[in-house]
Amino acid sequence: MVASPSPLTSSHPGKGRGQGQVTHFRILHPPETPPENEMVVFAGDMNGHVGSSNVGYDGTHGGFGCGSSNADGSRILEFADGLKLVICNTLFTKQEAKLVTYVAGPVKNTVDYIMVWQEDKTKVRNVKVISSEECVPKHKLLVMHMWFKSTKSWRRKFEPRVHVWKLKEEKTCEEYRCMVGDKVEEAN
Q1: Which helix (H) or strand (E) holds 24?
Q2: Which of 3, 65, 159, 167 is in Cβ range 3.0-4.6 Å of 90 for a Cys bridge?
Q3: Can you tell me whether residue 99 is helix, strand or coil?
Q4: 82 three-state secondary structure
Q5: What is the pLDDT of residue 31?
Q6: How far apart, in whole angstroms, are the C-alpha atoms of residue 18 and residue 16?
């Protein structure tokens, strides 16, 4: 069981960073090991900056973020490290403009993140921000491309519906004659 702080700040004008701050705790019950046929994705507005440095969080932070980390970003990194998650936004080299997920006037930050289990890191092919699309006001659309191995076999073995060669067997031929004779008698 893990308790993760999720700080939310007030958006009231005139209030500073420390004022109106509310902290929520969510109780999570992570599985011991992720199921082999399932994948868990944590995504959303985390209200923190994880920065571009991955010092101390090599398995969690890919090293390609933007800016510097803040206290809320440190909590995000601790949360991800505790649950053995990797922050997918930091896995790929991007221009700073293509890492920005939050734009409000002159303020441009990365506060929206996508996280997956470290074992699933190899399935992530790309994470990008579509700057021309807003999913909610002031937040840009964050998209993750993934690769999955197909578990179903789409090719079926050919099996003919009519087994004509079986009529050469005497027993099968007799059964077929009886069946056709019964059908003819029912039709009359």
Answers
A1: strand 22-28
A2: 65
A3: coil
A4: helix
A5: 52
A6: 6
Considering Cα of 96, then 99, then 105, then 106, what sign does the dihedral take?
A: negative
What is the CA angle 13-17-18, rounded to 5? 115
pLDDT in tens, 83-141: 889 998 888 888 877 888 888 888 888 888 899 988 888 899 988 888 888 778 888 88
Contact (CB, 8 A) for 85 and 118: yes
> Are the C-beta atoms of 76 and 43 separated by less than 8 Å?
no
CA 140 – CA 171 distance, rounded (Å): 72
Tokens of 46: 């985390």
Average pLDDT over residues 12-33: 46
Domain ranges across the chain: 2-146
* CA dist., res. 92 & res. 104, Å (int): 24
Residue 81's CB: how many other CB atoms inside 10 A?
Answer: 18
* Distances from the Cα of 77 to the Cα of 92, 106, 151, angstroms: 17, 26, 33
The pLDDT of residue 86 = 92
What's the token pair of residue 32?
Answer: 């011991």
